[in-house]
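User: Hey, my collaborator sent me this sequence without any context and asked if I could get a structure. I don't really work with proteins. Can you help?
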Amino acid sequence: MKDDSGILTTNLIDLFEGGIYFAELAWREGIISDIRRLGPERLGRPYLLPGFVDAHVHIESSMLTPVEFSRLAVRHGTVATVSDPHEIANVLGLQGIHFMFANAEQTPLKIRFGAPSCVPATPFETAGAELGVAQLEALFASGEVGYLSEMMNYPGVLAGDPAVLEKLAVAQRHGAPIDGHAPGLVGKDAQQYAAAGISTDHECASLDEALDKISAGMHILIREGSAARNFEALHELIRLHPDKVMFCSDDKHPDDLQRGHINQLAARAVAKGHDVFAVLRCACLNPVRHYRLPVGQLHVGNAMDAVLVDDLTDFQALQTWIDGRTVASRGICRIESFATESINRFSARPVEPADFAIPDPAVTIRAIKAFDGELATEEWLTFAKCDNGMIVADTERDILFLAVVNRYQAAPPAVALIHGFGFKHGALASTVAHDSHNIIAVGATIEALCLAVNDVIRREGGIVVVNGKGRKFGLTLPVAGLMTGDDAEFVAAHYAELDRQAKRLGSTLRAPFMTLSFMALLVIPALKLSDKGLFDGRRFEFTSLAVT
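Assistant: No problem. I've predicted the 3D structure and written it out in structure-token form, which is a compact way to encode the shape of the chain:
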């Protein structure tokens, strides 16, 4: 028998009928050829489900190439992703997007790419590339993208910015869905945003916000990533609007992906008492319908894209098939690794501690207040600790240095103060810094900050921990300073060790590196830092450290 053909006798889940029955299912050359019902569900036997789909993910945030990402994801029953290559596009433009296309061709995971709508994300930061209407048109015309990725410039949509509206029009001319990104937007503004053709949002932090956007006609993606975690706030949507909900990870680091994927959200939802069929529609069916994915749903004539699980509570994958081929079996991946080219854009020069020094403003200052599990921050008006006329970190009150260094050209660092990381010593630095991916760093002293930044510069991209004794630990990311083609298991283990080292600095954050990466994300309020300075995300304008 060919490796894309087979026969399986098991309990089968039918999401269309909402039933479970014992059946014999056969497939040939990747396509389901026959399903014979043999009787009612048999307790104690495994269950065959349509494969899980991640409805919104930036593969780059796993620090793995698409192939290596897939080698972890399929172990958890994932057969497809809706993937926005926005991160690499901000570094390398079309070259980076085409890298993702080419790499993804080497894996059976069904990756539906989108055309990034906001490169750069804002005009208030330095990115490595720009995508305009002509580039988006070319991407859609190529047939290699299937939707317009998250429209983060919601102020531009509401203001009727011609350039923004033309990007939306490109997707509409090609009959493609348009993803949204509008944290906190409700009422008439949300209705206007949805009326522009934007059909999803993955940034809802409260149930009321999500219900408001559903009433405006949008689908809501419940997100559980390594930093942003909204399941607890939003899971009631599964009961209220099961046809309007999908699951996504958005940004997931490799050690988290090693532990689980969309199957974890399904398990948590069932544990909350939600109907298993409603849960599986969110996890397996709704994304396929909304994005028109070529993913089978266990019907005759469909592709054999499925996962066999032991039970309908934990959803631990026993075996995963894509197009009839076994891609994972009992935690063992059958997708091979392969050598990856390194492409990058990096021109930063070494820095000195004096570059991060902040003179005492002798007035109230603004500090960024970060929160575990949230991308949004708050503005904290406080006072700075000073020594000899210069600001120093105040570890007792958890006020540390935050810096962003332009990676694309030599420029002075932008420096601010941040609360929420809890370091007592040391520093972190990274070129994973949404959305322009300049170098971002947080530290308890400017000396440690400088060591961490310079080690990232030496690597031309990566993540680095500097401990209180000045010892450096790091992971080089040669693909755009975002990813590595190294074996997924190795990267996950290496990253897990860096995460442990980061927490030894004193942080209680669940994911210090992931939280750090969003401190430069200007499109999510309230206060963030770009390479050009401190930014007020509510007013969408720069502000000052000193309150005058």
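In plain terms: The two ends are 76 Å apart (CA to CA). You can pass these tokens on to your collaborator as they are.
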